[in-house]
Amino acid sequence: MKHISILVPKGAILGSLEGSRQLLTQVNEFMKYRGAPPLFKVQLVGLTKETKLSGGSFTAHADLLIDEVKKTDLIIIPAVDGDIQEALEANREFIPWITKHYKNGSEVASLCLGAFILASTGLIDGRKCATHWMAANQFRKMFPDVNLVTEQIITDEQGTYSSGGAFSYQNLILYIIEKYAGRELAILSAKVFAIEIDRQNQSPFIMFQGQKEHSDESIKHAQEFIENNFQEKITVDELASMLALGRRNLERRFKKATSNTVVEYIQRVKIEAAKKSFETTRKNINEIMYDVGYNDTKAFRTVFRKITGLSPIEYRSKYNKEAIVV
């Protein structure tokens, strides 16, 4: 039987905590129905017996305190809400505990913003990690040694797992169920809870928010120029000349400040504008392509799919049912 410890961080979001518990304990119900023993022992583990959740709207009762857990096979870190720095400070006692159990053979999974707690342990330095796309800029700033993959729903590397934003935690729990209990029970769980299994990409949900939480005023000026002139063909040389910077110096500073190359930033701004048009207008693909400064259909489709994970037609069909698809 696998022992699973679901942490109860101070300020945890109830959904990812209780949702994980429900999914995992339901597997035991399936086994009971078959006349078989349970596969998981699921316990809530806290710093105190009672912990306020979701801004104080709910209270969770821990089965065990952290010093009462002698050994566990999997630690699940739910999402937390509010100010991240405050959440990390309030839950700092979990950090050495997680590290100790990982070194003793436990696996560790973070759900959504629980990635900040996982990253604070240092266990995923140099490894891939997913979190909510809205927190990507802050995560990169706080944990530059972690390879943040904003487009992925799930990461699995050396006994550490993570999931993307919000309800993506369901896909990670299904993934863990499949890994621990087999594909059949994962599919059964997905059907009972009406979850789309094997969803691997959160790119269609990402809204690009230019990284401006830096102090390089020249780069901020470049960003603003790109955002105000995305309809035009903007080149790196043009930006370098405008800012009186050498091209290599501009590219180095831009990447350091925004975590994007200049070309990537231009593409993301253009595609974000195209996405909004697909969501809200009846313009056809060529019209939108020209509006955001592309004149090569193949290039536009290629970049659009690279950033969103969908073709322009697929994106429009998903987010604008009333639009005329062409």
Automatic annotation (TrEMBL):
Q: Does the keyword Transcription apply?
A: yes
Extract the signal peptide range: none
- Could you tell me which SUPFAM superfamilies the record lists for this protein? Class I glutamine amidotransferase-like (SSF52317), Homeodomain-like (SSF46689)
Annotated GO MF terms = DNA-binding transcription factor activity; sequence-specific DNA binding
Could you list this entry's UniProt keywords, alphabetically sorted.
Answer: Transcription, Transcription regulation
Taxonomy, superkingdom: Bacteria
Keyword ATP-binding assigned to the entry: answer is: no
Entry-linked Pfam families: DJ-1_PfpI, HTH_18
**InterPro entries hit by this protein:** Class_I_gatase-like, DJ-1/PfpI, Homeodomain-like_sf, HTH_AraC, INH-QAR
Residues in HTH araC/xylS-type domain copies: 220-318
| Name the UniProt record assigns to this protein | Helix-turn-helix domain-containing protein
